[in-house]
Each structure stands twice: as structure tokens, then as C-alpha cells.
Amino acid sequence: MANITAGMVKDLREKTGVGMMDCKTALNETQGDIEAAIDWLRKKGLSKAAKKSDRVAAEGLVAVVVEGTKGVVAEINSETDFVARNGDFQTLARNIAAVALKTGTTDPEALKAAAYPAGGTVGDAITHAIATIGENMTIRRASALSVGQGVIASYVHNAVADGLGKIGVIVALESSGSADVLGDLGRKIAMHVAAASPVALDSTQIDPAVLEREKNVLREKNAGKPANVLEKIIESGLKTYYKEVCLVDQAFIHEPSKTVSQVVAEAGKAAGAPVALKGFVRYSLGEGIEKQTGDFAAEVAAAAGGNA
User: Fold this and answer.
1) Coil, strand or helix at 161
2) Lower CB density within 10 Å: C or N end of the chain?
């Protein structure tokens, strides 16, 4: 067997864009012949994956995995919506979230270097999936929450499979109280977050620049009024703004007469111990991505050499 060096693997990876493990396998199969290894990868369909990396991937799945007092939500993108119904892609998305939970790694690039359950790295698994399914795929983002004691509750909206859907939410509740009470409350809050889409837990977590912009809008709308009056208007306006965007200040969708913070405080009695809402993560698939527009059917027909 040829002596395959790290430099040879690196060289082949740079030439093809294929994962390290696949490059090493190709070199072993071809006795270290770089050109033959390139052909081997092409025959396996793996080198095609690199050519798809410049395509916009704005569809896919949001995956949620919770284990005890830890939880992760991750967005794994593909090019088209129907890939979300592919069993292999669903397994990939769920496993990537599970790897993030196990390793505590949420940075997409670091995640790609982490070990994948079926062998190789997460990056290798993505490359295989791209070659097999035929679309570009990316790990867009991932976030984790944990508590010392309490629960991490979750909710997935438009679920296509367990823990996989279009919107994924995790909520952290810290308490030594009843796990059943906390679990029920947490799921209801997670559903609220999915529907109400708060931007921050409370006012202290809002970007100062965003707050200043809100203040400027209020100043301009009330220009010419005395300074003391303007100050009160701004104060009142911000309170209204907080009720719209801060989770703790929003009217709870399950009990609109109460705020989320009031519901959490009252839950302490039923739980048998004080409850603290420590944080939330809400991912909506493709938010903020500029999607390409075009005739996908025509593209498929062109790729197949036919007519639409």
C-alpha cells in the first residue's frame, strides 16, 4: 500500500473540494496517484459536491435536540424545499444538531470538523449528502441553551419529522421545582415564542443602537414639544415597544390578560419553587437569506437534457 501523506490529502482536497476522509480513501484506492484519485472521486460523484458550493441554500430544516438540561437548535440549509422531505437529509440535520449538543460546539466551521456518528467528520457527511442528493447544503447557524437545574423545553412548528421543521424554538427555565410543571410551561412559552417572535428576553438585551433608533422616531414624531413632555412621550413609547418585542413583557398567547413574566412568576406556586426564564432561541428557516428566483423546473429539464 502506498504511503499516503497529509500533504497528498491536502493537495487532493484543494484540487477537488472534497472532504479529507474521502480524499484519503481515494488516494488509498489509487495507490497515491493524484490524477487517478481525482478520477476516482469523479466516478463516485463526490467531486461534484464542490461545484455546487456557490449555489444559494435557503431551504432545508431547523433541527432541535434536547437532552436533560441542555438543548440545541440548528439550521441546516439546502437549495429546495423538497429536500427537507428526504430521509437522508433529515438524518443529517438531526445528527448535526446532536453533535452540537454533545460537543458543545455551535460554530458552523468547528462543527464541520467534529466527528460524525456514522464515521468521518460532519463536513464529510455533508459532502456525501451533496453528492448523493445533488444540492448544495450548509450549516448556517446553531445555538445552545443550558441550565444548572430545571428544563430546556422545545417546540417545532411545521414539523416534517420529530424535532425537524420550519421554525424551531428552545426555552430555558431554571428552577428546582416540579419537572412536569416546568416542562408544560416551557413548551407553552416555546409555542408563544414561535408565534410572537420576540427579539429579546427583556429590555436589557435589546441592541442599544436599535433603542436609539426607536427614540429618534419618537422624537421626530413629536418634534416641537417641550423637553419635559417629550421625555415622558419617549418613556411611554419605549414601554409600548418593549411589550411588542421583549418576551417577558409580551401578552402570553395562552392567557392574553397576563404577560409572560406574570405567568412565569405564578408558575412557581404550582412548581413548588421559584421559576426563572433564563433565555430562548428562535430560528425560522431561511430568515435573512436573499433567495434566488428562477424557473426550477426549467433548470431540471436543462440538466436532464430535455425541455420543460
Assistant:
1) strand
2) N
Domain that residue 101 falls in: 59-200+276-286
73 in the same domain as 102: yes
Q: Lowest-confidence range among 29-38, 72-81, 147-156?
A: 29-38
How far apart (Å, rounded) are the C-alpha atoms in residues 283 and 140?
Answer: 11
Helix axes 260-271, 179-196, angle to 10 degrees: 170
120-158 pLDDT, tens per residue?
999 999 999 988 888 889 999 999 999 999 999 999 999
In-domain check, residue 213: no
**Which residues, 6+ apart, have CB-to-CB distance to 18 below 8 Å?**
12, 26, 41, 46, 47, 49, 50, 127
Whether the CB-CB separation of 34 and 8 falls below 8 Å is answered with yes
Q: For residue 83, what pLDDT is reported?
A: 87
Is there a single domain that holds both residue 94 and residue 30? no
- The neighbour count for residue 238, using CB atoms within 10 Å, is 16
Structural domain count of the chain: 2
Q: What is the dihedral of CA 242, 246, 247, 253, to 10 degrees?
A: 50
Residue whose C-alpha cell reads 481515494 in the numeric block: 26
Q: Does residue 195 share a domain with residue 94? A: yes
Helical H runs in the chain?
6-16, 20-29, 34-44, 48-51, 87-103, 108-113, 122-133, 179-196, 208-221, 227-245, 260-271, 296-304
- How far apart CA 52 and CA 82 sit, in angstroms, is 17
